[in-house]
From TrEMBL:
InterPro entries per the UniProt record, alphabetical: MetI-like, MetI-like_sf, ModB_ABC, NifC_ABC_porter, Sulph_transpt2
Family recorded in the similarity comment: Belongs to the binding-protein-dependent transport system permease family.
Protein's membrane topology: Multi-pass membrane protein
Stated name of the protein: ABC transporter permease
CDD domains in alphabetical order: TM_PBP2 (cd06261)
The species this protein was found in: Candidatus Methanocrinis natronophilus
Residue stretches spanning the membrane: 7-27, 47-73, 85-106, 118-137, 169-193, 228-252
Domain ABC transmembrane type-1 intervals: 47-249
Length: 262
């Protein structure tokens, strides 16, 4: 009985520790201040930039990551473990390290950036740099989920399609992809969420310029120093988006497991 009581107390403390800061955002914000802050140029610019760059990032991650995830799910090749390690590296790499790594690679004096700079093409401290940073940190979330989704597709179904005359590409688009779709969408949503909340790599590689590189996390950091209401407004928007993302992922996960059972 005592053990059950201890477990209940620990669960309540853990839930309170997580829920209290989130609830405090709503308790310390007044509806009038939030509505007024919505018209602030910093909020509008940050919201527009974040949604635009995160959407583009997600599309790029899907296009780049889907073939890689499928190959890693279906084939064995020399160096596969190294590839898997590189895919997972941005997840454990500190954001500031990711930012300076991007700067050393694509900055004006970087390994690649110096050559681009001689051609009059600059990436660092531009909106494109925001997308680069977001792709770097969010791609593992999609690729890992996509690989798992492809692995869950019974290989015999693909083989059956191929014995009926389908090419590997046809079987991929008409058999494998539809079956794995819920998992792929879930991974894409997680990649979108990660890119939307990216801070460290963005501020190191892209800077913090309103309307050009200042995403919502960066705008929160900036407005905290002068206008708390604007910072709270941006924080509430991100919390609302986070709840929506969690709901979508949970719904897709339930559908995926239901399909597997059926």
């Amino acid at each position: 009985m005592a053990l059950k009581a201890v477990i209940v107390v620990l669960i309540c403390l853990t839930m309170a520790f997580i829920a209290l800061p989130v609830a405090s955002l709503f308790l310390k914000s007044s509806p009038d201040a939030v509505l007024r802050s919505m018209n602030d140029p910093a909020v509008k610019d940050a919201l527009r930039l974040s949604l635009t760059t995160s959407t583009l990032t997600t599309l790029i991650v899907i296009l780049m990551g889907t073939p890689l995830a499928y190959v890693n799910a279906r084939f064995s090749y020399f160096g596969k473990e190294v590839v898997d390690s590189l895919i997972d590296l941005p997840v454990i790499m500190p954001p500031a390290v990711a930012g300076i790594a991007l700067l050393m690679a694509f900055g004006r004096m970087g390994i690649v950036g110096q050559h681009l700079n001689t051609l009059g093409f600059s990436i660092a401290f531009t909106t494109l740099a925001v997308i680069f940073a977001q792709v770097f940190v969010s791609s593992p979330f999609y690729i890992r989920q996509a690989r798992t989704s492809f692995e869950d597709v019974d290989l015999s179904i693909e083989n059956a399609a191929r014995t009926l005359g389908a090419t590997r590409i046809y079987a991929f688009f008409h058999v494998t992809l539809p079956i794995a779709m819920n998992g792929l969408i879930s991974g894409a949503i997680m990649a979108f969420a990660r890119s939307l909340g990216e801070f460290g790599a963005t501020i190191m590689f892209a800077g913090n310029f309103q309307g050009r590189t200042q995403t919502m996390p960066l705008a929160i950091y900036t407005t905290m120093q002068g206008d708390l209401d604007v910072a709270l407004c941006l924080a509430l928007i991100l919390v609302a988006i986070s709840f929506l993302i969690i709901a979508l992922v949970m719904t897709l996960t339930r559908r995926m497991y239901k399909n597997v059972r059926d």
